[in-house]
Write a structure and sequence with these properties.
Layout (H helix, E strand, L loop, with lengths): L1 H18 L4 H34 L7 H12 L11
Length: 87
């Protein structure tokens, strides 16, 4: 009877160590999720840097006329009088 109980407990704890909420497979899944989130975070940092640069270039202290012209054309649909617009 002792060996059956010991085998049962060993099997239970082995199963819990592999399949449980804090088991090995859950740890692998969490590490994969963390890697995906770190990749997404790096992309968001890059997007933030691009937007911060554009914001700085359109600020009062430093005005990039080319960027201003580009944004006016895109957002407002503006064009010069001598340009031909093809849609």
């Amino acid at each position: 009877m002792f060996f059956v109980t010991a085998f049962g407990l060993t099997a239970y704890f082995t199963f819990a160590a592999v399949q449980g909420d804090f088991g090995h497979l859950r740890r692998v899944q969490i590490e994969a999720d963390a890697a995906a989130l770190n990749t997404q975070l790096a992309q968001l940092h890059a997007d933030h840097a691009i937007l911060k640069n554009k914001t700085r270039r359109l600020s009062d202290d430093y005005l990039d006329l080319d960027l201003l012209d580009e944004r006016a054309r895109k957002v407002l649909g503006m064009a010069r009088g001598d340009e031909i617009i093809i849609r």
